């Protein structure tokens, strides 16, 4: 529940259509297409939904830094529940990177630093990127996707476990 088909045989799926315009249900209904590799995951958020979640987290982050018993607290670094951990990395310039992960997942701090490195290399050095605007850069997307795949392959207990 709450998951959608993200890719079939490595081809991205957008809604009910594959990247080449085929209907997903028709493709899966045809026995000639088997065996098939299907990647599931959460549905993609719209730009408005992303902005709404970011603004809600920013408010919680500010409240957390004000309510913290720690003097000079910079805000939320990690929020842990039974089903997920929310990790936040805030740069010296105030940019926040947020990752939701399995509670057992190791290496999230290294992943956050890698995401910041990718952001610095491919967004900030891009002359067409404007601060506080959505990042529209193919190299950024490719490198971020690669970093997430590496972290995902490390497994829920990190490398060497």
Structure description:
The protein is globular, with a radius of gyration of 19 Å. The strands form two sheets. A four-stranded antiparallel beta sheet has the order 3-2-1-4, with no helix packed on it. The chain is an alpha+beta fold. The model has no long low-confidence stretch (mean pLDDT 85). Strand 6 and strand 7 form a beta hairpin. The chain folds into two domains: 40 residues, Pdz3 Domain (Roll), CATH 2.30.42.40; 78 residues, Beta-Lactamase (2-Layer Sandwich).
Secondary structure: elements and pairs:
Blueprint: E1 3-8, E2 11-14, E3 17-18, H1 24-29, E4 38-42, H2 47-67, E5 78-80, E6 85-90, E7 96-101, H3 108-124, H4 138-153
Antiparallel strand pairs: 1-2, 1-4, 2-3, 5-6, 6-7
**Major beta sheet, specifics?**
4 strands, antiparallel
Distance between the termini: 29 Å
Strand count: 7
**Rg calc:** 19 Å
User: Please, how many helices?
Assistant: 4
The CATH level-2 architecture of the largest domain is identified as: 2-Layer Sandwich
Low-confidence stretches: none
CATH class category of the largest domain: Alpha Beta
Helix content range: 25-40%
Mean pLDDT: 85
Number of domains: 2
Features:
Trafficking protein particle complex subunit; 37% helix; 4 helices; synapse; Beta-Lactamase; 2 domains; single chain; three-stranded antiparallel sheet; four-stranded antiparallel sheet; postsynaptic cell membrane; 20% strand; transport; Pdz3 Domain; 161 residues; endoplasmic reticulum; alpha+beta
Q: What's the short version?
A:
The protein is of the alpha+beta class and 161 residues long. The chain has four helices and seven strands, in the order E-E-E-H-E-H-E-E-E-H-H. The chain is globular, with a radius of gyration of 19 Å.
């Amino acid at each position: 529940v709450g998951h959608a088909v993200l890719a079939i045989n490595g081809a991205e799926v957008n809604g009910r259509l594959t990247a080449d315009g085929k209907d997903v249900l028709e493709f899966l209904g045809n026995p000639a297409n088997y065996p098939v590799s299907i990647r599931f995951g959460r549905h993609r958020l719209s730009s408005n939904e992303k902005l709404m979640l970011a603004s809600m987290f920013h408010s919680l982050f500010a409240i957390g830094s004000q309510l913290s018993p720690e003097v000079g607290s910079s805000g939320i670094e990690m929020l842990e529940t039974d089903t997920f951990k929310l990790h936040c990395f805030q740069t010296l310039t105030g940019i926040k990177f947020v990752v939701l992960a399995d509670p057992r997942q190791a290496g999230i701090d290294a992943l956050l630093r890698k995401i910041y490195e990718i952001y610095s290399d491919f967004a900030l050095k891009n002359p067409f990127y404007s601060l506080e605007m959505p990042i529209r850069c193919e190299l950024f997307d490719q490198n971020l996707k690669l970093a997430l795949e590496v972290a995902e392959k490390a497994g829920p207990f990190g490398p060497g476990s």
